[in-house]
Each structure stands twice: as C-alpha cells, then as structure tokens.
Amino acid sequence: MHLSLSPGSEPNPHALAALTQAGEACAIVASQDIVDARGIKLWARGQPVTSSLHQRLLDRRLQQPLETCLLAENGVTLFSLMHELEELLASHSPLVPMLRPWASAMTEQLKQMPLHSVAQLLLSTAAVTRAGTLAHAVAGMALAGAMVASRQGSAQEIRLAMLGGLLHDIGEVYLNPLFLDYTQALDILGHKHLIVHPRIAQMLLVGLTNYPFALSRGIAEHHERLDRSGYPARLSGDDLSTLGRVLSVVEVTLGSVSAPHAPLTRASFALRVVPGEFDPDWASFVCDAARAANEDFEAEAQPAAVTLAAQLAEIDRQLMAARDLAQELSEQRRTAAVTEVVTDALKRLDRLRVAWNALGLWGLPTAEAMAQVPAAERLELQLAEGELRHRLRAFHRECLLLCERLTEAEKFRLSPLWQGLLDAP
User: Fold this and answer.
1) Ranked by mean pLDDT, which of 155-159, 301-305, 352-356 comes out on top?
2) 72, 105, 139: which is the final residue of a domain?
3) Is 80 helix (H, G, I), strand (E, B) or coil?
4) Same domain flag for 248 and 342
5) Roughly how many angstroms between the first and final C-alpha of the chain, as a whole number?
6) Is it the case that residue 333 has pLDDT exceeding 90?
7) For the chain, which end, N or C, has fewer CB atoms within 10 Å of the first or last residue's CB respectively?
8) Tens-place pLDDT, residues 102-147
9) pLDDT grade for 155, boundaries at 50, 70 and 90
C-alpha cells in the first residue's frame, strides 16, 4: 500500500478515488498546480477535482503530495463541527448524559481547535464518501474531550483529545472500501489491510501537518490494548500514551452505542470483561455512566436459553482444548519463532480463562436453568458469549499473522492451535 506523502510518489489509488467521488458532492479544488515528477503540469490551480483528474493521476509520480495540493472549499469546518456537536448534545444518543456536563468546556475548545487543511480535506472526503463517518468522528471528538475534561485536563489536553477523537479514522480513506464493511467478518487478507489504518493516519499527520507528535502517536494507538492484544503494533502497558489509552476506550464505546438495547451496558461490559485490556482510569468514565443510566433489560431480545447454554459450552470447550494444545506444544522442542507464537497463545488463553472465571462460569447452567435466569443476568451471559467469541476470532487472526514468517512445516505443526478456535456452530 503506497501513500502520496513525499515528493516523487504516486497517489494512493483508493484515496484518489475517494477524493474524486467527494469532488462530485463538495467543492474540492487544486490549491496549487499539480505537477508530475518530470515537471509536466497535470492540473491547474483553482481547477475543481473531477473524474478527469482521477484518470490523469493514475500511475503518475507527483512533485508534491497530492493531499497538499487540494483544498475542500465547502467541506468540514469548525462551524459545521460546532453544529454537529450541538446536534449530538441535543439528540437522544446514549452518550449525551456523560457529555452534557462538559459541553461548555468542549464548545470553548472547539472554537480554538486547529483544523489543518490536509486533515480537513481527508475528514471532508470521508464524510462525503462513507455514511455515518462524520457522526462517528464528532462523537469520538466529544467523548474524548469529555473524558479528559472530567479529569481536570488543561485546555491544551482537552483540544488534543478532541482532535484525536475527530481524526482517529482518517487513515481509512486509504483503504479499499471492501475492507470497511463492518457488517461482515473479514478474512485474513482484509484484516491485514484494515489493521494498518492507524499507522496510515500517523504517517499522514507526521508527514503532512504541523500537529504535535502526541496527536499522531495517540491516533496510531487507538486500536492497541494494554495486554498486547491490539493492533497494529501489539503494544503493551507503558508503551501506550495517555491519548492512546483514551482513544482505545472511545473506539470501543462508539462501537457499542448504536446497539438498540442497553448500549452503555454493552460498552461497559466490553471494557471490563477481560482484565488488563483497557486503562481502568479512563474506562471508568464509561462504566460509571452505564451504572447511572440503569438501562432497561426487559426489552432486550435474547437468544433462546438452549442456544445460549450451547454457545457458552462451546466457548468453554474451545478454551480448554486450545490451552491444552498450547501447553503440549510449549513442552516440545521448537524454534524461537514457534516459541513466540506458543508463548503468546498461552498468555492470551490464560487471560481469557481469567475473564471466564470472573463471570462465575465455572459451572455452566443447563438450558433449563438458563431459562430461569433473570433478564439482567441473562444479558450479561449473552454479552459474555459475544465478547469472548470476538476475542477468539481476533486471537485466530493474530495467530495467522504471527505464523506468516514460519516454515510450512512449522505452520502445519501449529495449525490445530488456531483452527480449533473457529469450530463453533
């Protein structure tokens, strides 16, 4: 995947297509002549972006990065962001109760927030080409700002958090749109493309803007986890910056608030279910809001008792089988590369087992007993099944990525470890 971040480079084809598409809906114009590496002018200053530009720039190396040569004249602005923030605060979003106490602080900092032309261009492009992107960005901006404001952060810290929430997904403009369909599970190829978007955003902000490094670093870390189970760098503990810790909580929370029932409860559960994934100081902002919301569980559509009992039993079986196999492999002679995979597998499986035990699931209820479980407790078990299943899939993908550098013989030897993780019905 190439990015048009330096002189003499070709534009990223997906970003170029998105910019062209966005140019049909809002005025994106050349802020300077667009010139190729040989000095040939391809597009004149002031000329609007059209499909003709798309064709002309394909496979052409440019003297300057394309992003610095374009301007979204009627795209996202601080005024439009203020309008979006006001609409969010006046809406029925489950985020509103935790945002409203900090509305004045966020409004004041938004007025002073620097919106670099490159960031504005990419944010405007994403807003036009993918439905819901701007709403997600504004919600991220508000939640991150409220979290930092609630900790008596300085004006600068609040603005930095708000920028991080606003821009955390701009790297997605450079991805194949096929890999951004979150309604379907990605195969390993799609996952390999998706996991680089935080790093892309970091490169964009470092290479093309004057934003502080703390912003690009925090955005690069918004999918990281304290226990090395995140991506793209699999960081842990002190390796994560304060802003990265904030944005990881923001990202998980925003992924839950669209749920039709008990959205804050879902977010809180996702942040707590596996100890050590998220910074509890920042996760507590959402968990406290979920407790205060006292959401109604009675309307929650739940699976049949027999189905939920079977799903939980299957996860229990998979965890035990994978742990036994990983332990067996760890006791055999192996190369350093195999050792890394097996050691990581054992640590991850042990943490999932801790989470399982913390839920009080030592003795699995029968279908008959499950039918008698109160609605709130049944919801927690349903959430546990979904969250643990999600982490098993993530562990499966991570095993495949770690094993790419192994020999075919080593892959064959380890393949039962990850193949068994997806055997659930």
Assistant:
1) 155-159
2) 72
3) helix
4) no
5) 36
6) no
7) C
8) 999 999 999 999 999 999 999 999 999 998 999 999 999 999 999 9
9) very high
| Domain range enclosing 64 | 13-72
Residue 298 lies in a domain: no
Write the DSSP assignment of 166-208 as a string of letters. Answer: HHTTGGGGGS-GGGG-TTS---HHHHHHHTTHHHHHHHHHHHH
Same domain for 273 and 414?
A: no
Asked if pLDDT for residue 322 goes beyond 90, the answer is no
261 and 203 co-located in one domain: yes
* The pair of three-digit structure tokens given for residue 25, joined into one six-digit string: 């809906």
As for how many domains the chain has, the answer is 3
Q: Are residues 164 and 259 in the same domain?
A: yes
Give the span between the Cα atoms of 178 and 366, in whole angstroms: 41
pLDDT (average), residues 185-214: 89
Same domain, 239 and 181: yes
Q: What is the distance between the alpha carbons of residues 268 and 405, in angstroms, rounded to a whole number? A: 37
Q: Are 118 and 107 in contact (CB under 8 A)?
A: no
Q: What is the pTM of this model?
A: 0.90
Dihedral sign for Cα atoms in the order 48, 50, 52, 58: positive
Cα–Cα dist 166/81, whole Å: 10
